[in-house]
Amino acid sequence: MFIETCIAPVNIALIKYWGKRDEELILPINDSISMTLSTDEMCAKTTAAACSTFKEHRMWLNGEEIPFEENSRIMRCLKALQCLALAKGAPTKFPLEWKLHLTSRNNFPTAAGLASSAAGYACLVYTLACLYGVADEELTAIARLGSGSACRSLHGGFVRWHMGHLADGSDSLALPIASASHWPNMNVLILVVSDSRKKTSSTKGMQRTVETSDLIHYRAKHCVPSRIKTISEAIRQRDFEAFAKITMQDSNQFHATALDTYPPCVYMNDISHSIAAFVHAYNAAIGSTRVAYTFDAGPNACLYVLQEHVSSLLPAIQISFPNDSADNVEYYKGIASDQLTQSAAEATDISLNGNTSLPIHEHNLLKYIIHTKIGAGPKRLTGKEEHLINTTTGHPY
Amino acid sequence: MFIETCIAPVNIALIKYWGKRDEELILPINDSISMTLSTDEMCAKTTAAACSTFKEHRMWLNGEEIPFEENSRIMRCLKALQCLALAKGAPTKFPLEWKLHLTSRNNFPTAAGLASSAAGYACLVYTLACLYGVADEELTAIARLGSGSACRSLHGGFVRWHMGHLADGSDSLALPIASASHWPNMNVLILVVSDSRKKTSSTKGMQRTVETSDLIHYRAKHCVPSRIKTISEAIRQRDFEAFAKITMQDSNQFHATALDTYPPCVYMNDISHSIAAFVHAYNAAIGSTRVAYTFDAGPNACLYVLQEHVSSLLPAIQISFPNDSADNVEYYKGIASDQLTQSAAEATDISLNGNTSLPIHEHNLLKYIIHTKIGAGPKRLTGKEEHLINTTTGHPY
């Protein structure tokens, strides 16, 4: 049996991907830019095993077996990797005909509504690439076939997915802009909010937007290109204020085009909008842009803040969004959970002095907070204890 | 003492006005189209009195005295009417120097968040025009100086506010498209929803949108003109399906541009979006577009539905948005309050059969419902008992 285990990160778009020009090849209508999050707090982990005795392709996701050969996106990724292995002409360690067993897990709750497919497909493709022994140059285009934004999870730091212009999608690739070490103090707080509404899936939502919204095409052609330039320059210069403004504007514009869809796609809820309003009020109270929000196709907020400002932001969040389990480790996950109460005094100052006071909301609007930061790309894990598949039985542990 | 009393209707925009090209003259960046609502259910009522003994201009709004000479919008309307009277050369019944007492009341709760300024300024201008004895041809341009959308309340039925192109705004006028009798069975249900959030005022909101949104300018130049054509034709042909679709699309696009503003303007809340989703689900269940929604700069829904379909729509609303005081006359206001329970059986059929079932929400998300319909423009009331000002004292009753 040949076996490989890898982890891959989550990425959060700063300039949003919304709308495909080719549904089959998953080619976007505009470039997008993302930041990769540290795998310490959130990642997908995949083990891929190949064995001459496996009768069929099988896959387990978060402990549940799921259809493999019927899943066209997984099969597309697999076929593309096998083609790549053939094209490279490099001898693979085992015949390509051998069946595979795959196991994948996210170390963060999928119920959180956090985009797990990007990390999942990036991890799948990266792990299979290790198994087949193919270099990682073309991998982003293959991950893209699984889930568009997965291509951005194959790099660390700040990543640009170039939409490309060729019909076959071969130039629709994700390339790094700057590594995690370029802006190492970039931290992220994910505010997971309570929500019960049924959402339109991203795939269906963006398809409907492209078909029915007048604004999305103007956005893709005229707004995004200049935003890509502006935020790339802000990242290069580590200009947080410029970075923050364009990030918030682009999140809002993405949700605006979703709303311009017919029937409309609504992903933010009242709590999401309250968080956005909190960020504007907090920045106004501080007198500079210290925090930025972005929202994907769901209600949870992703807040960008430099590490040195986290300890004054957290108590302000607790003032504005009081939570009865704020002292609970289950509420505050990730980096440095002791910071929550550390500088409550400073935050109280912010809310009490100054002309802009923070809005105070009812209790428990936030389910929990994940504190994480900028991080690197996928990693191959070499320790035998890392495998999710039992090398004797070929089945998941 | 010379005294006049008039009423003026509310109008609800179908193609939205959002954004001025001239803040002072209140000149819009695009045409808009509205439907005027019957004054039987909702109207502003204004009495204007002129007397040689009045020492100063005074005004009372809903019983409270408000500053008059300090209110630049009211003064602009007054000055423009006096200029018109002078320009006409017609002898006025009294010297233009005489001071005025004005009283205005809305017969609908202002707390409802329903745009009352349009009806209010339309009524003010119409009443003053009666008092000064000037013809009503140029009145829409004068009402516009008070509140942009007020110009549309000077006509009944369907009204188009032409943005105009002249710098002095003299061609920015509201003109009728079709009278109320053209589509007499056009009914409206206003769903007033619970809300506590502080909203950005329309004036400030649209100013910020024009300054910060990229999408608003594309909307004004490229989307609105074709929508104006499409809905005008739908109105002409009494094509409810076409009318409904473009109305919903334009409401969504207006809120999209508000969200594309920085910081964003958010007027719809979760309940508003649930109502929009209900309308789409209801139409899907029926198999044709029977209901349309539109939302102004607030969370309340305005539903368009033909009179013959009201009795099956109302019970469906009650199923989807159950209200404990549904039998209360305070909950269901306006036309034919006995229809609410009339055909519950039919609505139940809709929700139970078919593949699309209606979403069922928690109780009491709606504060109340106003049932009204298409209506005529402002009216001069001649009965002495109509006056809101005591002709002996010169003060409001």
Largest interface, Cβ cutoff 8 Å = A-B, 29 and 30 residues
Q: How would a crystallographer describe the biggest sheet of chain A? A: 6 strands, mixed
Strand and helix order of chain A = EEEEEEEEHEHHEEEHHHHEEHEHEE
Strand content of chain A: 15-25%
User: Which stretches of chain A are poorly predicted, pLDDT < 50 over at least 5 residues?
Assistant: none
DSSP helical segment count of chain A: 9
Helix content of chain A: 25-40%
Q: Could you give the order of strands across the largest sheet of chain A?
A: 8-7-9-6-1-17
- What is the mean predicted local confidence, pLDDT of chain A? 92
Assembly form of the protein: homodimer
Total strand count of chain A, please? 17
Structural class of chain A: alpha+beta
Q: Termini of chain A, distance in Å?
A: 16 Å
Quick one: overall form of chain A? globular
> How large is the radius of gyration of chain A?
21 Å
Q: Could you write a compact summary of the structure shown?
A:
The structure is a homodimer of 397-residue chains. With 397 residues, chain A is of the alpha+beta class. In chain A, 34% of the residues lie in helices and 22% in strands.
